[in-house]
Design goal:
It contains 12 helices and 5 strands. It is an alpha+beta fold.
Length: about 300
């Protein structure tokens, strides 16, 4: 078993209805990058798989075992618990390792359905974070005219080189043209390498600039990690306290209300300078759920 003390704390969690199964995915910040993780045990339950057998299979796989992480996953009825998760991009490999013939016949079609669609559906749940992940991976998206022009020249030269290579046999038959055409091919190849090097330098420079700007924006356009943890703790408190009120709240109610009120994809995307507004809104929600009986307000954010 993985140590709960070392379990990762997600910055966001999404629940997806997948053909009647409530699948969960969490977004984790790890080594400065965002990555989507998926708990394995609930999937085993939905597919009728023996968890102990799948646990052993996963831990015995030298690739999957290195990718396993313990992550705190919030479950509406049971609160948060540390669960073993795989990155979303390794989930398909794990599913294809399941031996469908060894499960009940009525579940074999369901396993095929998971293999075909599960990755896409869970990935779409975090579609809003795609640009952030791309930027952190160092992939520059740019409209710099210099880069566009170089890319067009590279495409043209690549097509020319391909044409020359495909017709080399015919060229070799014309003895007096071999030397001249060979020189042209070498010049085109050298120019292509020069252009590629120039594009790489421009792209690297743009990526560095974009990453610096993204870090600055990230510090001011969303809650700080400390405020996120404090907000999550208060939301947990809201769920527990409202169970005794006339209108019990669950996590999806609270997250949905915050997203609609602040027009964000996740509560963590609320601007840090609006953290007091977030606190006031959460207290209003709790007051509505408990019939006006609010706990002492205190201070949510330090």
């Amino acid at each position: 078993m993985m140590n709960e003390r070392t379990a990762l704390v997600p910055v966001d969690q999404r629940q997806v209805d997948f053909h009647g199964d409530d699948l969960v995915a969490v977004l984790v910040e790890e080594a400065g990058q965002h990555r989507i993780y998926v708990p394995l045990r609930p999937i085993c339950t939905y597919l009728g798989l023996n968890w102990s057998g799948q646990w052993e299979r996963t831990h015995n796989d030298d690739v999957l075992a290195e990718e396993l992480r313990s992550v705190w996953v919030t479950q509406t009825e049971r609160g948060a618990r540390a669960m073993e998760c795989l990155p979303l991009d390794f989930l398909s490999g794990w599913l294809f390792g399941v031996q469908a013939k060894r499960v009940k016949a009525e579940l074999q079609a369901k396993i095929k359905q998971y293999r075909r669609e599960c990755y896409r559906v869970l990935g779409n749940a975090f579609q809003g974070e795609a640009l952030t992940v791309v930027q952190q991976a160092g992939i520059a998206v740019t409209t710099d005219p210099r880069v566009v022009e170089i890319a067009a020249q590279i495409e043209t030269l690549t097509a020319q080189i391909t044409f020359l290579q495909e017709h080399m046999a015919a060229i070799l038959a014309a003895g007096e043209r071999i030397e001249r055409l060979s020189s042209q091919l070498e010049q085109a190849t050298g120019l292509l390498h020069t252009l590629i090097g120039g594009q790489e330098q421009l792209t690297a420079h743009q990526a560095t600039t974009d990453q610096r700007l993204a870090k600055i924006d990230a510090r001011t356009q969303q809650l700080s990690p400390a405020s996120q943890r404090q907000a999550q703790a208060f939301i947990d408190h809201m769920v527990k306290l409202s169970k005794r009120g006339p209108h019990p709240l669950d996590y999806s109610d609270i997250y949905g209300a915050v997203k609609r009120h602040f027009n964000v994809g996740s509560y963590s995307q609320v601007a840090d300078d609006r953290k007091d507004d977030l606190l006031q809104f959460l207290h209003q929600l709790l007051g509505q759920a408990t019939g006006g009986e609010l706990p002492e307000q205190g201070t949510l954010f330090g």
